[in-house]
C-alpha cells in the first residue's frame, strides 16, 4: 500500500526584522555582516556559515597550517577555538603566547587561508579542561568566580587585555578574520555578568560584528546584546553510566522547531539555577556552535559515535531550520602537559567526570593526530551543499509534515521536513538514529502543497526509504537555466566543465535516482549510452534507470541556450568528493583520503601504497608528483591519476609482553557517585606492561606514522622513559599514537612502554557493545604501524 506523506507550506512570512539587534560590523567593510531575526547576511547576501572547533593549544603548532587546510577542504568556513586561560597562565603573572599557545599566529593562519575565526574567550570555557579553564591561582583567591565580584573581575580584565593584545589588528576593521566572539560558556542565571564580561572585552580592545553566548538550558541573556547559539549531540559522556541513551540526545534525530537542549552540561547545572524561559525565537536566527562532531569519553561512561550518527544529526538540523552549522569538536587534540598539575577535567578538581589525562580526541572528524575519519567525509558532503546553495537555504522556512512523529519514542513514523521559500525548496529525510535502528519505509511518496505554486508529488513511483538513510532532495531547483522539478538524489555542488554547468548529485543506497526536469526549460536531453532513459510526462521530462557512478552524466540543453550536466554519483563515491581551487580553476577531486588545496598544489594525505585521485575538469597538463610516476586513465567523466609509488603503508608492530596484569583494582566512586579513574599507583603496580620496538626507518621519518593498537581492558597509557605521552579509556575503538609527537632520541634510549589496566567486573562503567567479560582483561591483541604520506601534486 502506498504511504503518502503530505506537507502544506504556509503563506510566506513577513519580511525579516533587520537592525533590531545591537550588533554591528566595522564601518566600511566590503562584506558587511548583519543579523536578521531569521538568518545572517554577508555583503547583503544570505550567509550560511559552517564553523568547526579546533583548540590550537591542544595541537602542535608546526602542524596547524595543514590541519586548517584540512578543515577548509572539509567545508568549514570559520574556525572556533577556546582561548583556555589555564593553558596560557598556569603560573600567575607569566602569560605565555609562545609555541603551541601562539594565539596570534593561529588566527593569522586562519586569515591567510580565507577562514573566519571565532575566539571563545571565556574566562570560563569548560572544554573538559581543569577548572573549566580558570587557573588554580585564581581559584585560590578570596573571590567568587563567574560573578561581578571585583576581586574576580580584576584578573579577568588583565586576561582579556592580554588576549586583545594578541588579536590586535585582526578584527574586521583591519581586514582580519574575527567574525564573532563568544563570552563565557554555559552560564545560565547571571545575565548581568555576561553583560559585564562583554563590556570588559570591548574595553580591552576586542571587537567583532557578532557577540555570542551559548543558549542551551534555558539561559537568561542580557537583553539582545548576545546572539544565542545552540547545540546538540548524538551521545553524551556526562550522563550516568547506567542511564541508557539520553532522551536529550534522541531528540536531535527528529525534525522539530525546538532549539534548546537541556542536556548539554546538565551535570554541572543544578536545575534550580536554570534560566526561566529560552531566548525568544522570533528575535534571533537559529544558529549553532556545538553540534556533536563526536564525543569525549569519560571514565564512567564511554560512548561510541559513528559517522552516520554525526551525518544524520547535521542534516537534520539543516532541515529543522539551522542557519549556522557549528561543530564541537571538528578537530581533536591532546592536553598540554601542565607545569604544576595535569590539565584535564577530573574528580580531583570537583568535576563529575574523570577524563583522560592527555587525550582529547573527541572521536572528531579529524582526530587527535589529524586522522581523516568517515565522519569527515559525511559532513563534507553536506558542507558542499551549503557552500553551493546555502544562500538559498538560509532564508527558507522549515515546515513540518501534517503527520509528525507522536513523540521521541515513535520509531514508526517517517521523519521528514521541507525548507522552502514558498515555491521551491529542499526536502529532508532522516531515517537513522544511534542504538535503535529505524525501520524501512516502503511505498513512500511525498506531496508538498505550495501556497503560490502547483503542488509537487514525488517521486513518480513509490520508493522505499531505507533504514539508516538520511538525505536531502531538491524541489524546483534552478540550475543555469534548467529547472529541476525534483530529484531522488541529494544535490552536492556545481562545477564548470566542457562548456557545461555540471550539477553533481549523490544517490542514496536503496533508492533509484530519478530526475524530473521542467519540460519548458529543456530543448534536448542525452543520457549515457546504455545507462538510463527519459520520458516526457505531464510537462516534465523524467530521467530514470540511471546507474549512479562517475559516468552517469545526463546532458541537457536548456531552453535559454545554456548547457547543463546532471551527474549522479553513487553514495560511496559521492563521499569521496572534494571541491576547491586547484591549478588555477575550480575543480572536483575524488579521493577517499585527505585532500588539501594550497595554491598551485593539491596534497593527498593517503595511507595507500599507490594513492589515487580523479579530477573534473582535468587540468591542461597532467599533475606531477615529484620523483614518482603518475598513471593517467579515464574514470567516467573524470580523469584519474594514480601515483605508482609502491610506498610502505602498514606493517605489523612488534609488541612484547614484559609483565602480565595483576588483579583489577576495586572500583572507587567520586563526585556524584560516579566511578573514578584508578589511582596512578595501580597503573604502576597492577597494569600489564608491554614494550614496543620502533623500527629505525620510522624513527628517521616519523611524520604521518601512527602506532595503531587493538586492545582490551580499562585504561591504557604510553610512556617514553617516565614521561606519559598518550592515554585512552577502553571503548572498543583502536588506540592511535602519533610517532612524530615522541622524541626519537629518547625512544632510542628508552623505547616505548605501554601499560594496560584490567577492569573489575563490578565496575560501574558503561562501555557500549561489549559482550561477556573477556574485553575487561588487559591485553594488546594486535598492533600495526600505519604510514600516511602527504603527496604533493602540481601541474606544469
From TrEMBL:
It comes from the Bacteria. Signal peptide: none annotated. This is Beta-galactosidase. Belongs to the glycosyl hydrolase 35 family. Gene3D superfamilies: Glycosidases. Residues 41-187, 289-381 form the Glycoside hydrolase 35 catalytic domain. InterPro entries: GH, Gly_Hdrlase_35_cat, Glycoside_Hdrlase_35. Residues 1-23 are annotated as: Disordered. It comes from Streptomyces violaceus.
